[in-house]
Amino acid sequence: MLAVFQLGRLHPDEVYQYLEPANWRAFGYGILAWEWQLPNGGLRNWAIPGVLALLLKGCAAVGIDDPWKRRAVLELPQLGLNLWMLWAGWQLALRRVPPELARWAVPLLGLYMPVLTFAGRTLGESFSAAFLVVGLELLDRAGSGDAPDREVVGVRRRAALLGGAVLGLSVVARYGSAAAVVGAMVWLLARRRFRDFALAAAGGVIVAAGLGALDWATWGAPFHSLRAYLDFNVFSGKAAQQFGSDPFTVYLPYVAMLAPWAWAGFFKRPSGVFIAAGLTYLAAICVTGHKEPRFIYPALVVLSAGSVGAALELITRRGLALTALACVASLGFFFFDSQLKPERPEQFRLTARAWPEATGYFLIPEGVWGAGGYFWLGRNIPWFTCDFPQQFQQVVPDGRFNRAVSYEGRGEAELEAAGFKLLQADGRAKLWGR
């Protein structure tokens, strides 16, 4: 729930990948980025936005109109998913160390600062990383032990089937995570776990069939979004042309953000399927032309989670050592640049506080992709971004615009001259009304 209390956003996709499409699907208005529009878009599927849209309709049905409260409701399924991820980490550790030591896997993963920062965000990386950890733990479970007991074998087979399905969900949440799934499946073959490979593949096929049907219903053709994604990001090179290309070295500072226990766990035979998946994914994003810091999050989580049980085998003075490691994992994150930190949380909080009196709203200074969209306004009202003076001059004479947020003192004298009064201040942001 940290993302709800803190607000802000790590990337524009946090708003325009899920929240705005969900709002559009639920209520008929919202900003659809180019990825959501044909003929040149259609790169995303409607699975997660569709679920969020159903929750938004439920909020409207029971009278939850405040955008901040709606955001809390949308967080609930993601909270459940991340609790499942922590449970998976505990199960993984439980196969390596005694129960009294394995329980420390939960705070180690839960207090890992990238998890605290990303886990609650409405980003494909956030959903996908949690699914990856759960699915990989199930595959690890399917291959654990040698007992021939029929009931145990049945449990392992179900784990492999479910693991494949959950890995399929990680790809539905974010197509780029397919590289991690390929790494895991190749590892199963290399270990001659052919039955587990077949069962996991069957689970993945079931999810893929659902994705194909969803795309058919929403985009008009099976697997339209997957094919459009691959064409744009892999085959055509358009992603690198449009958004730029960087060398793999841009990721090196973020590799240093692996959890402290991961470096220790690597020397104690960590879970092979986790390491294979994490390294394959890391290699894939390094050779892909277009690079962004957020892309590395699934690799950090998978590699760190896969090493937690092995690292716990090295711990002797349990409580003190583990608490210190958790603190280091959390505090160390703050020394890295702001590209992986929430931006302008005050601006988002005051945008939400403009509800319900706002009949029109504008931001100074901000562009569309830095704003909160219709979702954070909570209603279909005119709104505007003023990142240039002429835009401010255009919007102020319109009497519908009765609420504004300024950032870092920009435009305050002009707002007062136009009849606006300060209503609330929050850090570097101020809410104005007239």
Structure in words:
This protein has 434 residues and is mostly helical. The protein folds into two domains: 70-340, no CATH class; 345-433. The protein contains 22 helices and five strands. It has helices at 2-6, 13-27, 47-61, 67-94, 99-102, 105-110, 113-118, 124-142, 150-173, 178-190, 194-219, 224-235, 238-243, 252-255, 260-265, 272-287, 297-312, 318-332, 345-353, 373-377, 389-395, 412-417; strands spanning 361-364, 383-385, 403-407, 421-426, 429-433. Strands 2-1-3-5-4 form a five-stranded mixed sheet, sandwiched between helices. Strand 4 (421-426) and strand 5 form a beta hairpin. The relative contact order is 0.12.
Structure characteristics:
61% helix, 5 strands, 434 residues, globular, mainly alpha, 22 helices
Please state the structural category.
Answer: mainly alpha
Overall pLDDT confidence: 89
Number of strands: 5
Helical stretch count?
22
Beta content: 5-15%
**Shape assignment:** globular
- Overall helicity: 55-70%
Number of self-contained structural domains? 2
Largest sheet: 5 strands, mixed
Q: Give the terminus-to-terminus CA distance.
A: 33 Å
Note the quaternary state here: single chain
Secondary-structure blueprint:
Layout: H1 2-6, H2 13-27, H3 47-61, H4 67-94, H5 99-102, H6 105-110, H7 113-118, H8 124-142, H9 150-173, H10 178-190, H11 194-219, H12 224-235, H13 238-243, H14 252-255, H15 260-265, H16 272-287, H17 297-312, H18 318-332, H19 345-353, E1 361-364, H20 373-377, E2 383-385, H21 389-395, E3 403-407, H22 412-417, E4 421-426, E5 429-433
Parallel strand pairs: 1-2, 1-3
Antiparallel strand pairs: 3-5, 4-5
Helix pairs in contact: 2-3, 4-8, 4-17, 8-9, 8-16, 8-17, 9-11, 10-16, 16-17
